[in-house]
Amino acid sequence: MGKVDRLWTSPWGLLLLSALIALGLFLALRPLELQGPATGRGRALLRLDHLLGATVEPLDIATASQSGLSPGGGELVVTSIASNGPAAKAGLRVGDVVERIGSQPAAQASVAAPAQFPVPVLINRRGGRAVLSIRSVRG
Predict the structure, then answer these.
(1) Most buried one in 2, 9, 27, 77, CB count within 10 A?
(2) Minimal CA–CA distance to 124: which of 104, 96, 105?
(3) What is the pLDDT of residue 136?
(4) Cα distances (angstroms) measured from residue 75 to each of 49, 83, 100
(5) DSSP secondary-structure letter at 117?
(6) Can you tell me the mean pLDDT for 103-119?
(7) β-strands 54-58, 76-81: how paired?
(8) pLDDT tens digit sequence for 30-74
């Protein structure tokens, strides 16, 4: 018997073979889930990102606790700012929590982008609230 034949008949070889088979079955049988810009919500966030010149994501638990908010309330957290974009010019910073855009909660405004600019944006910066006036790249 060669070394390769002994590998597959040894306890470690059988364990390795079993693990490879289990991994292959797991990858083959798991449901395929697509997320990202292809979803309606993803496209809405991308439109809002472009209009504001900032990248926003749904509020996470850690940022919510720092801001005194509860996650799942529809707020958006700023994750990046385009240099010289409308958000940067208005004073928006990474980590700011966007609570309202215009007269709508932030999550609803991301679905229906604001029609009028400049738009007032209510932010929460580590527990303190401020209103910024943001002009769109198109306006």
Answers:
(1) 77
(2) 96
(3) 67
(4) 14, 23, 8
(5) S
(6) 69
(7) antiparallel
(8) 776 655 555 666 777 777 777 788 888 888 787 777 777 776 777
Here the tokens at position 78 are 């700023």
Q: How many CB atoms lie within 10 A of CB 134?
A: 26
What CA–CA distance (Å, rounded) separates 104 from 128?
19
| Alpha carbons 94 and 71: distance in angstroms, whole number | 18
Local structure of 59: helix, strand or coil: coil
Q: How far apart are CA 139 and CA 119, in angstroms?
A: 10
Q: CB of 105 within 8 A of CB of 74?
A: yes
User: How many whole angstroms from its chain centre is CA 128?
Assistant: 23
The SS3 of residue 11 is helix
Predicted confidence at residue 139, as pLDDT, reads 47
- Give the single-character DSSP code of 101: E
